[in-house]
Amino acid sequence: MRLNELQVQHFRNYEAAHLTFKKNLIIFLGENAQGKTNLLESIFVLAMTRSHRTTHEQELIGWEQEYAYIKGMVQKKHSTLPLELFLTKKGRKTKVNHIEQKKLSSYIGQLNVILFAPEDLSLVKGSPQIRRRFLDMEIGQMNPVYLYDLVQYQKVLKQRNQYLKQLAEKKQTDELYLDVLTEQLIEFGSKILLARQIFIKRLEYWANQLHQVISQGKEVLELEYVSSFLLPEALTLPQMQQQFAEQIEKNKEKERFRQMTVVGPHRDDIVFLINQKNVQTFGSQGQQRTTALSVRLAEIDLIYEVTGEYPILLLDDVMSELDDSRQLHLLKTIENKVQTFITTTTLEHLKEKMTVEPEIYYVQNGSIKGEKN
To answer: Quick one: which residues bind ATP (predicted)?
Structure first.
């Protein structure tokens, strides 16, 4: 998979830009706060319809503008197709091959991207919410049906929590309606749990292989999905539904007291283990960085395994954050395999390590001065 063209209008600090990419390594070079990250963000938003930097879509629209527009020409093994995304203050519109897509699940997955930024260390060190978002974003790219199940689950969860509160306040007395919401919660929640479990097992396989190379065989990396209740060993939907239903019943009184749903995928987490020790708690900063790098790079092979296409890799100012050995390993992993976009303020730390000739664009104050080779 490649991105051959990128066009933006009124996006962040870009009035308009149209770039054509011919090579597999593209570097956006410039000082800080000039718009390099905004270009990477536009590719991410084109793929995922939302930003990794903000939940407020109006921030993506240029100052005093009514809309933002992103278009990309995506080349796959057997086809080339345009993707378009319109962002307004009223919402978003997506098009695949000039045809508007009413369902998010029909659009997501047309362009697969992996983003690695300095703040991705928070994947290891941050809150469970960050790791759940990571799961949802990455699984959603490979399995659009997952996004549908997730949206439905979140909708039912909100309704159920509101109803639990109303029951506690004696504003509602219809237990039958709560049962209906519980059935829906179990239906969608079980599918999410199953998809996450399968994803973690496959991601662990690829991440551990990479981690052992980086650590020269000294460390074994494990990924453990930590659920709010004990999951069945057999990964089957009926068993997951049964287990989920039993836990809901078991925690009925606790839910009434706390006026909220206390078990389910909305409360789950991932634990990273190196040589069976929790990296979040006991790992060094170097181990935490290596874990984050291994997990991100593992997604390349996992997405290829699932979709048959390599994703596009977005590296936002991460090279300067990695030591020489990690830089070398990253570049060796991606060379001649995936199209990669890198933002950086200097080429000094890259010159001697790059084995492929890049396309280099200089970014200054929201304008691209042209390719420099």
So the answer is: 30-37
Which pLDDT belongs to residue 373? 42
Identify whether 123 is part of a domain: no
Report the number of distinct structural domains present in the chain. Answer: 1
Report yes or no on 25 lying in a domain: yes
Average pLDDT, the chain: 90
Hey, what amino acid is at 360?
I
As annotated, the binding site for ATP includes 30-37
- Rounded to whole angstroms, the Cα distance separating 119 from 340 reads 19
Q: Please report whether residue 177 resides in a domain.
A: no
Planar angle of CA 347, 348, 354, nearest 5 degrees: 65
CATH number, position 332: 3.40.50.300
Find tokens 């097992």 and name the residue: 201
Tell me the mean pLDDT in the region 67-72: 96
Host domain of residue 74: 1-112+309-373
Which ranges constitute the DSSP H helices of the chain?
36-48, 122-125, 128-142, 144-168, 175-214, 237-250, 252-258, 279-282, 285-307, 324-334
Query: 101 is written with which tokens?
Result: 């897509």
Question: Is 201 within the bounds of a domain?
Answer: no
Q: What pTM was estimated for this model as a whole?
A: 0.88
Distance, first Cα to last Cα, the chain: 24
